[in-house]
Amino acid sequence: MVVAGSGLQYLKKGITPHMWCPGCGNGIVLAMIFRVFEKLDYRMEETVVVTGIGCWGKADDYVVTNGFHGTHGRALAFATGIKAFNPRLHVVVLMGDGDCITIGGNHFIHAARRNIDLTAIIVNNFNYGMTGGQVSGTTPSGMYTSTTVYMNPERDVDICALAAVAGANYVARGTPYHGFELETNMEEALTKKGFSVVEVVSPCPTHYGKNNAMRTPVEMLKWIKGKAMTKAEYDSLDPSITGEYFPIGKLVDRDAPDFNTRYDEIRGRAMKDRTP
Amino acid sequence: MTTPRMSKKSRYEIILAGAGGQGLILSAIILSEAAIREGKNVVQTQSYGIAARGGLSEAEVIIDTEEILFQQVRNPDIILAMTEGAFAKFRSLARTGTLIFYDETLAAGQHGDNLLGLPFTRSARDLGHGASANLIALGAIAARTEVVHMENLIAVVTRTFSVQALQTNMKAVLMGEDLISGQVFRN
Amino acid sequence: MITTPNQTQLMQGNQAMTHGALYAGARFYAGYPITPSSEIAEECSVLMPKLGGMYIQMEDEIASIAAVVGASLAGAKAFTATSGPGFSLMQENLGFAVMAEVPCVVINVQRSGPSTGLATKPAQADVMQARWGRHGDQSVVALCPSTVAECFGLTVQAFNFSEKYRIPVILVADEVVAHMREGFRIPEDGEVTVIERKRPTCHPRRYKPFETDIDGVAPLASYGSDYVFHVSSSMHGPDGFSNNDPVNATRKIEQLHRKVEFHRDEIVITRSFDIEDADVLLVAYGITARAARAAALAGREAGIKAGVLQLLTLWPFADKEIGLASERVQTIIVPEMNYAGQVAGEVQKVVGPDRDIRRVNRYNGQIITPDDILEVMTR
């Protein structure tokens, strides 16, 4: 018996308890995805959930739509092939910050540039949780991880800014704390034609929290809440302190033609061309 | 006047040598396609890489009534040398029976058995289309040897070029034929 | 005089591989340009959209093979083409295709290495990369053409094996065969057998994407059909979901190998030339097989009874065929464009350590000539 609106029909039965740690944001985000799937009436047959490798990359284990669990960093490239050949499918790509932005950064840039009609839901927990809390491409400068014990000497990449400049049609950021707004953004992303990105800034109390003096899930969530603000608030900040905060909500919303639409034009031209 | 012709063979090995950009690969392709029209087996290979951008470029064609095993030319029957460098590389083969067509415009004053200097480049300039020297050479080769029949060469040239480019290129082939019929042979 | 077999046309090896793929029903190409394979990409960019298919140039070779795998699961016959450096980049996701049993074809037009090497020159040094380039226990099929006609025919065959056995098939070509032009007639539809992948016929709710039939191969559905399914790079059970049970892992690894082993007699293709009475056996593959055949003929003219066994399938290895052909010969010669004797070593395994194998190796970007082989034959 599935409660209407819960999205539980998308959850694989008999597999809980899930493998994620107490206080992890992944379960909250997955439940949200299921609810939006139900709201949008996504059929199992027409939906493909594509994952890479990492904690969030295990999400496909819990999903009963079509599933694809790929290799580390390449989820978007696999998904591009699926969507390009069958544009009728809803292809939803779940990646962590290591998967999507660090090892897979180039595919992320080019999926956005190509504006292929995929939705990337990126859970950014600032470190590599699955392998024990090592530094990632989104670990803020000066923070601690299991491979930056003296502090991170490198800077982090802004996932949303990168998506925006690379050409994504829709970009939003949220946190599990701001659940209602995030769910709204997720729905917008899934219904947007073209490449859409939702970054979820999410707690990893087990590693990132522990390494940075946030011992409980509540402390971590409060830390994230304290850094999040609306785009208007963020834009009014003094530039010297913007690095301490991040804007949440919808950041980019445009309607450039997606890859498959453009490719249909190519087919039209090619079929008119009479040369053998 | 009658022109001496190379006696008909069941197999021909041909090298077209010159500079990258002279259209030698295209000539090799046209020659090969003409041979295919005659039901022959053909293998066409080429040097590749930096040669395509100005160095010595070589295209090879083997035409045979039998199956062609090894794909490269080993005993060339015919060589076209479109630059001085190409001529210098191959001229010694004339002594062992290879018929060498060379561009007299670029390598003047060379004489000897099996050496056939013709003004390919100058004729192309006269035609107002310098890039057609390779086709003039092909016309000359077809006229002088029996490697392919002239009508097959013309058929392939007709198919290869767009309507706009065809007239000049067809003139070039026929000009090559004229160079042979007007030639006073030294050998 | 002018017979005009008008359908025979001059065709380049790369072009013939492209047309072979299209003939086999390929409608998706994802790739990244690299010499000496780029003509395949160019040809596909022209022809795929005409046929309602798709050409997509990806950001690198990692993404190219990934997109090919994705499209294959969406129902396409899909392929890519590359050369050594790109083939190296493809290996991890090619491993995915092995593990998730996704049909796909990779054309590797070999060039000289290591690394950028002699980037425009031929080599035959990726024989082992084709077989062992990926980590882990796995099995693939690799085919190797020596003529433009074989470029076409073996590409069709590559798709057939790939679709039939749900396995990536690698076409190991080389720069010379890829750029060479020969007369070739594209067969009419139906003239060459084209095999389609086995689709599920059970009720969708009963479908398990890795539950094998008696032939060791499970039917494969497409995303978007009535059959909902899950595939994984992780060790998985018949339902495609993660399964770490050692019994399951044993069964899966054995199945990946045995589906090839059980069908090796069908997959291993060789051609023999004058080996019945031969004293000298030349084992050759790819472009070098042509020099070997010319050398064998020249040898016979000089009174040496030479024959050639040409390997059109490199993997699985033609051990039975080589064993049989080498039984009565005195001398075995293996010419190949690599230093280590990648195939010679395999031949040695077949005939045993006591038999002398004469090797002819070139690794300077130049081809092996009949004279090179003849010299070793008459030594």
Description:
Chain A has one domain (26-252): Thiamin diphosphate (ThDP)-binding fold, Pyr/PP domains (Rossmann fold, 3-Layer(aba) Sandwich). Chain A is built from 10 helices and 10 strands. Chain A is of the alpha/beta class and 276 residues long. By secondary structure, chain B is α/β, with parallel strands linked by helices. Chain B has a single domain (11-181), classed as Pyruvate-ferredoxin oxidoreductase, PFOR, domain III (Pyruvate-ferredoxin Oxidoreductase, domain 3). In chain B, strand 4 (78-81), helix 2 and strand 5 form a beta-alpha-beta unit. The two termini of chain B are 16 Å apart. Chain C folds into 2 domains: 9-184, Rossmann fold (3-Layer(aba) Sandwich), CATH 3.40.50; 271-377, Rossmann fold (3-Layer(aba) Sandwich). Chain C has 13 helices and 15 strands. In chain C, the strands form 3 sheets. A 7-stranded mixed β-sheet of chain C has the order 3-2-4-5-7-6-13, with helices on both faces. In chain C, strands 10-12-11-14-15 form a 5-stranded mixed β-sheet, with helices on both faces. In chain C, strands 1-8 form a two-stranded antiparallel ribbon. In chain C, strand 14, helix 12 and strand 15 (357-361) form a beta-alpha-beta unit. Mean pLDDT of chain C is 96; it is low at 1-6. Chains in contact: A-C, B-C. At the A-C interface, strand 2, helix 2, helix 4 and helix 10 of A face helix 2, helix 3, helix 4 and strand 9 of C. Strand 2 (66-69) of chain A pairs parallel with strand 9 of chain C, so a sheet runs across the interface.
What would you say about this model in short?
The complex is a heterotrimer of chains A (276), B (187) and C (379). By secondary structure, chain A is an alpha/beta fold.
